[in-house]
Amino acid sequence: MSIKYEEIIKLKIEFNIRQREIYLEEDIGKMLNKILEKKRDKIDMSSLVIKENGKIRIEKEQKEIKKITQNHYKNWTGEKSIDLDELEFNHEWREIYSPKEDIDEKIYNDLMSPIEMEELELVLKNLKTNKAPGQSGIPYDFWKKSKTLTRKILIEIFNESMIKENATEKWKEGIIFPINKTTRSNWNQELSLTRPIVLLETARKIWFKILVNRLNEIL
């Protein structure tokens, strides 16, 4: 499966080269804009301001900064505590959370059936092209303009992942970027003034969109 994904990355490189050629042939101005486009300013994580027990300290050790950042964002997305006693004795909530007995479990039988080309093409047709990619750098635009061979390889990866009930390791990784909560450019080196965004592999997101479409049809 990893070999197939490497083939896709090679195709992506060829795609980008061809795009540059097209810009040069058809629109030099567009090509220059692509080459010279400014990247968004990134938050400088070389130091953090830590407030603990009424005291303030500045952390500059990179390993410690990474550890603090990971713990901070784990709490950001941590599980919410649920008062089970309230669910047990509150009639309204108990009714909401009670399993639906009138649902036939067989309706989910086709959820993990092999993915067809038509399903992939439907998702690709509706993809937005202005989304940031994951670690591989493969954007939605690559998939939208991909040829039949590339799409067949992608479908093979999807179906193999479902058979093995496990996705390729690269799809389990994401890039976390802290961004300002406010419109101010200065975040004062305080993580509490940031929020995380996670960049995931576009192939993984396409796969999930296909499954969501199936769920929508079922439900």
Automatic annotation (TrEMBL):
<protein>
    <recommendedName>
        <fullName>Reverse transcriptase</fullName>
    </recommendedName>
</protein>
